[in-house]
Amino acid sequence: MADVTLRKVVKRYDEVEAVRGIDLDIADHEFVVLVGPSGCGKSTTLRMIAGLEDITDGDIMIGGDVVNDVPPKDRDIAMVFQNYALYPHMTVAENMSFGLRLKRYPKAEIKTRVDEAARMLDIVELVDRKPKQLSGGQRQRVAMGRAIVRNPKVFLFDEPLSNLDAKLRVQMRIEIKKVHQKVRTTTVYVTHDQVEAMTLADRVVVMNNGRIEQIGTPNELYHNPATRFVAGFIGSPAMNFMSCRLEEIGGKMHIRLTDRIVFPLPPARAERYKTVSRTDKLQLGLRPEHITEASPHAEPGVENFDAVLDVIEPMGMETMIYFIIDGAEICGRVNPNADARAGAPMRLAIDLNNMHLLNEATGAVI
Amino acid sequence: MTSTAVIDKAAPTRAVKLRSMSRDRTWALRWSYFFLTLFAIFALIPPLYMLITSLKTSAEISAATNPWWVYHPTLSNYVELLTSNQFLTFFRNSALVSIFVVTITMLISVPAAFALARMRFWGSATLATGVFLTYLIPETLLFLPLFKMFVVFGELTGIQLINKWYVLLIVYPTLTVPFCTWIMIGYFASIPKELDEAAIIDGATWFQTLTRIFIPVALPGLIAATIFAFTVSWAQFLYPLVFTTSTEQLVLPVGIITTLIKGDVFAWGQIMTGALLGAAPPLIIYAFLMDYYIAGLTAGATKG
Fold first, then answer.
1. Are strands A77-80 and A154-158 parallel, antiparallel or unpaired?
2. Taking CB atoms and an 8 Å cutoff, what residues of chain A touch B204?
């Protein structure tokens, strides 16, 4: 087991810079998820850690040793691929033991390790089958088993659940988490699915356009996003963004959304934003759960307003509502009993204690 | 038909379309059976004629009777050939040449294809195309320069390769290696990239990846390539005719022609028998491995 460190790592394909100098410290035993839209460089980063791609510049260290020029087989890593990449002509047991057999481990030792991994992954009765006789979920388990038996320093997962259907994905997600809790191997996991990232990770690394946007625990990213990209990427449904201005009305700081909609800022927020230029183009970021039905006893910082609902989506335990403010579609979450109806006006409340103020030009959260 | 009738009630326009489609299909099937039968007859008449002729005596062959009927069947042609040392030598030469050529071809083309399909190096794509282009050069253009090369080689080194059956082991691979390499490139290219990456991470060297992963996975393609190499070397006529002349060095196709045609006397019965016996090994191999052959060739065709 080991920590993994990336220092100013760059990957350039001819003219295209896929990874633009990233720094990342992954502690021993840690489960780190790289997440971002396709083409953000997350898979390339993983493949550079694996040694399947050369790095153009910078350093990669595993367990303190620089491994820039170390071939994959000597990096002591194991990788799980999106399409499983099981050897089709070998049985499950042979698939799992392939690496050990190449390293000429004693037969008894191989058998012990394969049995142990098979038990952990609940595939004991499948060990004599060939991959084509297995379902997608079972194949993914075998692929994980192949990684576990090697007992490597680092596990690398490249979108391992993307080929599975939604239900199985949730199940395998839990399975992966359980395995990590048991073996505690340092893990780097790549996905484009922010739910997977949030649920699995000790820390999430949000990547965009070859750079790291933010590193943090799932809760940090959710509650304190550093940029508009992170704010919009993490959370489902996504955060709402509305153009706004700060204004001084009667000596108190207000936030103006439209000519008709203006709210006073809670004192803590007013203090935080007092240096922001009044002429800057700003955006108000608000998560759907902070736009709810108005309650008779408004708490401080919660302001009421009226909106005509466009669309409603009853989800059972909550109802999603959609309406338009100044051309932008806004999503809110109301109680299913709040009598939300499409096309009808509704009194809503926004919780400004949980607002985010963003600079529209730079995308930075203020 | 019942389903068509049901749909007919519900949606008449759609039913018309369905019926016309099924009628199209029926006609397509009829035509394909017609042509298949035609081509089957076309292809099977020569071997049938060979079989009929091989069962006749020379006297009966030259007699003015119905050539499609055997009046006095005899196995004398078979007995004579199979007990003649000469014929058995031809057969042995052919078998040796084919087995060695297949082995040599596979030993060269499989690693070559693996390198060209997977190890990206400078010029690998051009080289892969080049391999295919060499296959397109007609062999009839090459036998004279090749012959000259061996003559010069003999003069320079004193090693005489012309008129030895084993010279064919050097000559045939110039035909088989490019094609087999090309088939195998196509087959290897269809194996997902992650499979060799998984093997590499598991600690396999390039050579182990080839032998433990690629060859077993691409076995159908490998068998197709093997059959091709065997067929080419077994049936080759022009090169052995040019490169070998002594009776004890001849392979089957050339041997039959040169020894069973004496001047203007054709031993038709024995020629036909020899040809039939010569066709037997490829026929048996095809019969057993046909499915692999088709799977291998089509995979190579679409991915190559």
1. parallel
2. 73, 98, 102
